[in-house]
Amino acid sequence: MTSRTKRNLRLTAKWALYLVILLVALTGQTTPGFLTIGQVRPIFILPVCLAVAVYEGEYAGAFFGAVGGLLWDYAAGRVAGLRALGLMAVCFAAAILVQLYLRTNAMNFILVSGCACLLITGVDFLFYYLMPGYAGAAQRYFGVVLPMTVFTAALSPLALAAVRGVWRRMNPED
Questions:
Q1: Which DSSP category does 77 fall into?
Q2: Helix (H, G, I), strand (E, B) or coil at 40
Q3: Rounded Cα gap, residues 144 and 113, in angstroms
């Protein structure tokens, strides 16, 4: 095979594996009772999209974040687009932040993932709980949204390790 054909096959396989990781994350996120503590469940899609953005760059990461956000919107039964736009912006910003200021390690990724989760879940809370005026909104925020952010950030190195494994395997040393 020619070098160009090998490169194209490797690139296709890499993005297919990223998609498989995203679908596994979606399955884990939507499985009832999977890693649930009380009412709190972690978000698996967000760290996977952030990890792809960190390793693949801002534009590819933003596109992958938009795809992950659309899957998340569909799985959650919400209006398509809010999480897609949010994940696209967060993945773009995280990739830029890591390229310019942070090293790619587990502690920095926990920090970035926690901040991104707080932002995405905070916007979701604002539009779907606080603005409609539900009773007990503060209790939901402090009892569900903040612990969900901590739980997601604590499990985010698993997504980083999975994406790093694919990235190292599919990107040959030059």
A1: T
A2: strand
A3: 17
Question: Which distant-in-sequence residues (6+ apart) come within 8 Å of 55 by Cβ?
Answer: 104, 163, 164, 167
Give residue 143's Cα distance to chain centre. Answer: 22
Cβ atoms of residues 113 and 152 within 8 Å: yes
Residue 2 backbone phi and psi in degrees, to 5: -80, 165
- Which of 70, 74, 44, 48 is closest to 61 using CA atoms? 48
Contacts 24+ apart (CB under 8 A), 5-10: 10/170, 10/172
For residue 9, pLDDT over 60 is answered with yes
The H-assigned helical ranges of the chain are 3-30, 45-56, 58-76, 82-100, 106-125, 137-140, 146-170
DSSP structure class, residue 42: -
Of all residues in the chain, the percent with pLDDT exceeding 90 is: 40
* Contact of 163 with 3, CB cutoff 8 Å: no
Identify whether the C-beta of residue 131 lies closer than 8 Å to the C-beta of residue 125: no
Separation between Cα atoms, residue 54 and residue 168, nearest integer Å: 13
Question: Above 80 in pLDDT, residue 174?
Answer: no
Q: How confident is the model at residue 173 (pLDDT cuts 50, 70, 90)?
A: low
CA torsion, ordered 55, 82, 121, 73, to nearest 10 deg:
-80
